[in-house]
Amino acid sequence: MSNLPLGSRIGAILGRMGLKGRTLVIAIPTVWLLIFFLIPFLVVAKISFSVAAIARPPYLPIVEWVDGFFRINLNFGNYLFLLEDPLYVAAYLGSVKIAGISTLIALVIGYPMAYLIARSEPDRRNLLLMLVVLPFWTSFLLRVYAWIGFLKSNGVINNFLMGIGIIDEPLVMLQTDFAVYVGIVYTYLPFMILPLYANLVKLDEAYLEASADLGARPVTTFFTVTMPLSLSGIIAGCMLVFIPAVGEFVIPALLGGPDTLMIGQVLWNEFFSNRDWPIASAVAIVMLFVLVIPIMLLRWAQSAGEGEAQ
Amino acid sequence: MKRKSRFLAIVGVVGFVFLYAPILSLVIFSFNESRLVTVWGGFSTKWYGELFRDPQILDAAWVSLRIALASATLSIVIGTVASFVLIRFQRFRSKTLLSMMITAPLVMPEVIIGLSLLLMFVAMESLIGWPGGRGILTIIIAHSTFGAAYAAVIIQSRLVDMDLSIEEAALDLGARPVRVFFDVTLPVIAPALLSGWLLAFTLSLDDLVVASFVSGPGASTLPMVIFSKVRLGVSPDVNALAAIIIGVASLGIIIAALQLNRSSKVSQQ
Lengths: 310, 269
Known about the structure:
CATH topology of the largest domain in chain A: MetI-like fold
Shape of chain B: globular
Order of helices and strands of chain B: HHHHHHHHHHH
Strand content of chain B: under 5%
CATH architecture of the largest domain in chain B: Orthogonal Bundle
Radius of gyration of chain A: 25 Å
Oligomer: heterodimer
Distance between the termini of chain B: 37 Å
Helix content of chain A: over 70%
Radius of gyration of chain B: 23 Å
Number of helices of chain B: 11
Number of strands of chain A: 2
């Protein structure tokens, strides 16, 4: 009896009670998430096919009962509109570009930091990890706000550079794509470091020593041994930065300029400024399709990471 | 090897400066006399006074605090049950579905979560007349949903590590499963519940995007007020607010770390 997994024993006991308890326990989170997570996506999908109207809510029902007939207002126009208007295509491409470049920068900064933490003494490791995570516990919005003070023309960086005489005129950094890159790398860096650290801390140093003994230079060892072995950590970290960055709204809204085009902002404006719910829904559905491959990559990397741990 | 470690040390220092310099400058300039946020004009605490006299900020802080307390608690309940079901129960029909739904909010862009929940609330209202307008309640529901996802990550890893034999011993001694869960499992995973609660609380207090979608008139959260202020430019009282939030968060983390350190030393003995 004691060899049986606990779950099935609880199940067996509950089975004698008529299965009700077990089903009820499963039902609590399942029903909650169905109603407040999964079904909402179906609602978005449905509304993305409807016609915008000046009404409450501001769209027409898809199936209507008019003069004894069902009228179906199925409308693909929202999607066609997204394709036709260059603004949307540019915004999707812009988001993917900005998120992609930021992810690469975060990887270049985050990898050595994760490596450093993983290779330091176990006592110092926890302290350093805590220092990486701590900014995450303070307000995200306020950390983005901090960069306004840093980057603006009479901000901290410009004052410092002019003070020591490197530049004569303030650099224009705020309200540019540069500021958006800085903001994304800054806020999502912990998401890059943590999965990389979890991966690198398990790396057996014997491999590195073997490679060095066989005459490989440290750079060669890094690119042929360390990096391939930490691939699942690299992919997990990159996707954890890339996916939320594609849909980012706050960072381009506060740090970006008028030419910064990101799809999260477009969705926000369609919804709040234009009150066009069907277009906003179509934008969201297309964004989900853009993110399908990154999300699948992330799932693969996470299951590969678990596989290595066992 | 020496050269490599020096390179790493430099990268580490630069990296941590990058992470902390903006936060430090926020705190320093919150004590600035001058209205110009980035030019030092002498030490002053007047922006803190201003902050505590601003009814808009105080109201919003109170709204946010209530939402965060309620949604963190709900997150823990949903997250714990979901984790327990996923880790301890053997196969059941909706297992893959539940596991997908509890992890998906972690990677879903906030604009999509916000929009989809709002459209759901509107659709529900026209179908069954609930939730009857949007406001604090709808924000609590939205925050609980993604808070539960984060809490579940922490709780699941604790449940996986937990020694099964304690639960089995209680069952062998004749305790009913519900009693085993409340008397054995919950106390063992209590630290994970606490950190999950704190994480959900912080996320709720910090959320701008989802709350903006599902909120209604009269329910402005603190991030919504800060965002509208910041959009108009930097203002020193926001710095003061930031310094307070950073102070409280750092204090909490340091206490938690010390506590964790002590308990791990106790368990080693």
